[in-house]
Amino acid sequence: MEIRPARLEDAAQIASIYNYEVLNSTVTLEIDPRTTHQQERWIARHSGVHQALVAIDHDEIIGYASLSSYKLRAGYNTTVEDSIYLHHSHRRRGTGKLLLVRLLEIAAVSGFHTCIARIVVGNVASIELHKSVGFRTIGIEKEVGRKFSKWLDVVVMQKMLN
Ligand SMILES: CC(C)(COP(=O)(O)OP(=O)(O)OC[C@H]1O[C@@H](n2cnc3c(N)ncnc32)[C@H](O)[C@@H]1OP(=O)(O)O)[C@@H](O)C(=O)NCCC(=O)NCCS
């Protein structure tokens, strides 16, 4: 298992992992699958402090995780939001935790003060994963999402970094 920063050539595999959730689940509120070109642009944006990491097993990308700005206004610049996706056939083997721990180390070293995770209520795997690395629930946003004709609540979790 290798974890390294995402590269442009990873775009198709990352998009494939993400698009599976776009099309089959409510863990992301995105509705339209990403093209490889859109994913390349996403990777280009996720370098430097807002980094994206990939987990590689036997030359295959089996998961990725990223940091994004929490909000665009300058006063929020010391906060980041994380995102993490594992290929559906490579879950529950510790890779998500490994990626998230590494990502939070990068966020801390980069000087971010705190990290937010926004998770659709009912996504037990992600809520438990975040709890396992020290996030705690700070609130619920009621019916802020809608997908597959259902209203969705979002749980907001937070971990202090520095
Ligand atoms: C959430 C996700 C990233 C977890 O990745 P993973 O590699 O399967 O998780 P890990 O094996 O590292 O699990 C770490 C801990 O998380 C918790 N966890 C993970 N999956 C769980 C599940 N299905 N049910 C309950 N707890 C779970 C456990 O505490 C686990 O520790 P343990 O195995 O020692 O009990 C993965 O399920 C996923 O990609 N889901 C779809 C995409 C998604 O929901 N992304 C997050 C959007 S907010």
Question: Can you tell me about this structure?
Answer:
- This protein is α+β, with helices and mostly antiparallel strands.
- The protein has a domain at 2-113: Aminopeptidase (3-Layer(aba) Sandwich), CATH 3.40.630.30.
- The protein is built from four helices and seven strands, in the order βααβββαβαββ.
- Strands 1-2-3-4-5-7-6 form a seven-stranded mixed sheet, sandwiched between helices.
- Strand 4 (79-86), helix 3 (95-109) and strand 5 form a beta-alpha-beta unit.
- The longest helix is centred in the middle third of the chain and has 15 residues, at 95-109.
- The structure holds coenzyme A.
- Residues 21, 27, 84-86, 91-97, 119, 123-126, 128-129, 132 line the site of coenzyme A.
